[in-house]
Amino acid sequence: MVSRELRHALKGVEDPVAVIDLEAFDANVTALAQRAQGLPIRVATKSLRTPAAIDRALAHQGYSGVFAYSLPEALALHARGVRDILVGYPTVDRRSLSQMFAEAGATQNITLMIDCPTHLDIIDSARAAAAAGDDAQTVRVCLDIDAAYRLGEGVLGSRIHIGARRSPIRDSASAVDLAEHVIARPGIDLVGLMSYEGQIAGTADAGATARQVMVRAMQRRSIAELRVRRSGIIDAVRALTELEFVNGGGTGSFESSAAEGTLTELAAGSGLFSPGFFDGYTHFHHEPAAYFATPVVRRPGPGWVTVFKGGFIASGVPGADRVPTIAWPQGLDYAGLEGAGEVQTPLTGPGTEDLRIGDLVWFRHAKAGELAEHFNEFLVVSGSQVIDTWSTYRGQGWAL
What we know:
Blueprint: H1 4-9, E1 17-21, H2 22-35, E2 41-44, H3 51-58, E3 63-68, H4 71-79, E4 85-87, H5 94-102, H6 106-109, E5 110-114, H7 117-130, E6 139-144, E7 149-150, H8 153-156, E8 161-162, H9 172-183, E9 188-195, H10 198-201, H11 210-238, E10 245-248, H12 254-260, E11 265-268, H13 270-273, E12 290-301, E13 304-308, E14 325-328, E15 333-334, E16 344-348, E17 360-364, E18 377-382, E19 385-391, H14 393-396
Parallel strand pairs: 1-18, 2-3, 2-11, 3-4, 4-5, 5-6, 6-9, 9-10, 10-11
Antiparallel strand pairs: 1-12, 7-8, 12-13, 12-17, 13-16, 14-17, 15-16, 18-19
Helix pairs in contact: 5-7, 9-11
């Protein structure tokens, strides 16, 4: 439900806009820090894609460093003064690697992700090309450890793989093998481990259906399995070299990740915006903080209105949970044969009765940072007033 104050703040607005409820955002910053049980939170920037929102989270004492999704993004953030940047995914972008070596301080503040020796070869090649005599810079790297759950792995191998398919590194032996490759390379420092348990953090568990019962059972088993496996990997790598950090978790798994006792930091970003997808979790609740609102442009018939745009479908497996949540007014639903459309979105139901042409209908994106891909800025609302605008990556002209 969208508050009266939020709606009042946009009185007179008649074009599609993205909105941040500042009080809700700040409440989520605090709530995540409390859920982290004393572990520092690395801000997952892809879930915000809004520099001012990233800065506001980092200003809180419970947050430290960022978790970027690409090297170009990391470089853009570094140029703005952000430090302690972990790039969450391996890069094969030689141009950006060259830029990293050319930018003062970048190699000291940016850590690259790897999961195979080929990633090291690419980094080494760019490093050698950038070197001037004996002035080659040292590169910081982190090992990505696969945290997915495999049912009956000892017998079935990878045939029942539940979770993100990220890294081939799943056990102590493979982690040690790659760590030894890093240690043997002059000018490359292994500084951290990272693992993301998407089957826990990114999988909604609320509901009484057979599927949701199975999801909760899978998550309990996965938490127990990962605690043992991750601990073994961390101990094995630490026997070879000192680590600065061990990163894991996500908004949906803070409780189990923090309690595991193996991590030195958590990562989160989506919980700060609390998109529609998070309505499906049982063990936490954050305040909806990011919306988009778009005007009614047609009344095609009794019980129907049509709003402009609205088809901001989330990534992932296509389904009803990837469609924007209609936040206000209540009593609206999508047309079965059109859904959320690129240019127009028909809506039906009793909530149409009091809507006039020009009135705004409010939505929440199913995911968090993807909303920022559709708007140049967020209107920032405090109380019943627009007090600021926060430029998105798109508004900055960043195609990252």
